[in-house]
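> forwarded from #structure-qc
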C-alpha cells in the first residue's frame, strides 16, 4: 500500500429480485463514492438470495459476460471505484452447479481478479441446514490481487474459518471477505474470527455482509466491519442496509509489523 485511501464496505439484505438487488447495490455504491471511497465491497450473494439454493444456478453466467457482470462493470465505471462485486454465480463444468466467484473490477470497469470460493459451507443445527456443495463447485486457487491501492487477499464467507488459506498469500495489505453468515454462526464466531485474521496477518480487513431477515426467510448476521492490523474495529454496521467507511493507512501496517514482526518470526510454513 503506497498511500492512504478510503474504503467502503456495503451491507445488504438481498431479496428474490435480481434487478431490485442490483439497483440497491448501485444506490449504496453511489453513497460510498460520495463519501470519498476509492474501493468498495459488496456482500456475498448480493445479486440474489433465492427462494431455493438452485435459483442461483439458473442465473449462472459465462465468465466475462452476462447481465450481472455488465452491471458491476458499469457501477465501477460510473462511481470511479475499485469494486469487489460480492459474489457472482459463474458457469462451471457441472450443469447443476456454479462457481461462487468474487470479481474485482477496476475503475475502468475491467476485471482485475477473479476468486472462486474454495471452502463450501455446511451446517445443521437449531432448525437450519445448509450444504453449499449441492449447488456450488469449489474453487482451487488462492488469489491475491495487486492493485495501485493495495495488495489484496481474497476470500469468501466460510473461507474465514481456514487461516491456512491466507497464510499461503501473505504478506498482503488488505483481506476482503464478502459474506452471508447465518445469524446462528455469526453471533457465535463472526467478530472473533475476523479480528483474528486481521491480527495474525497484520493487515486491514473488510468484511461486507448480508444483514437481516430476507424474503426467503433466512436470517443473516450482518455486522459488516472494517478492522485495522491491530485488530481494532474501525467501522461497523450491525444490521440493515448501508455503508461503512474507514481510512486505510500504510503507516499503520508498517508500525504494527515493525513493532511486532510476527510475520517475520514464522517458523512453520
Amino acid at each position: 500500500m503506497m498511500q492512504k485511501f478510503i474504503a467502503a464496505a456495503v451491507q445488504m439484505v438481498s431479496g428474490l429480485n435480481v434487478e431490485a438487488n442490483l439497483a440497491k447495490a448501485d444506490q449504496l455504491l453511489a453513497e460510498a463514492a460520495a463519501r470519498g471511497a476509492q474501493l468498495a465491497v459488496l456482500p456475498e450473494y448480493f445479486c440474489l438470495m433465492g427462494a431455493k439454493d438452485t435459483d442461483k444456478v439458473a442465473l449462472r453466467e459465462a465468465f466475462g459476460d452476462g447481465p450481472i457482470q455488465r452491471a458491476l462493470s458499469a457501477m465501477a465505471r460510473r462511481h470511479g471505484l475499485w469494486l469487489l462485486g460480492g459474489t457472482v454465480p459463474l458457469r462451471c463444468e457441472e450443469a447443476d452447479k456454479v462457481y461462487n466467484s468474487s470479481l474485482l473490477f477496476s475503475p475502468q470497469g475491467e476485471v482485475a481478479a477473479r476468486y472462486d470460493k474454495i471452502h463450501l459451507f455446511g451446517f445443521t443445527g437449531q432448525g437450519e441446514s445448509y450444504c453449499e456443495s449441492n449447488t456450488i463447485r469449489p474453487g482451487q486457487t488462492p488469489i491475491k490481487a495487486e492493485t495501485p491501492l493495495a495488495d489484496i487477499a481474497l476470500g469468501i464467507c466460510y473461507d474465514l474459518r481456514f487461516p491456512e488459506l491466507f497464510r499461503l498469500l501473505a504478506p498482503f495489505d488488505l483481506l476482503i471477505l464478502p459474506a452471508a453468515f447465518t445469524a446462528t454462526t455469526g453471533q457465535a464466531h463472526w467478530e472473533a474470527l475476523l479480528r483474528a485474521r486481521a491480527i495474525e496477518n497484520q493487515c486491514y480487513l473488510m468484511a461486507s455482509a448480508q444483514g437481516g431477515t430476507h424474503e426467503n426467510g433466512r436470517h443473516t448476521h450482518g455486522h459488516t466491519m472494517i478492522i485495522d492490523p491491530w485488530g481494532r474495529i474501525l467501522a461497523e454496521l450491525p444490521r440493515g442496509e448501508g455503508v461503512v467507511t474507514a481510512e486505510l493507512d500504510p503507516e499503520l501496517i508498517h508500525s504494527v509489523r515493525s513493532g511486532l514482526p510476527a510475520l517475520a518470526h514464522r517458523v512453520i510454513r
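QC bot note: The CA atoms of residues 87 and 102 lie 5 Å apart. The longest helix spans residues 183-201.
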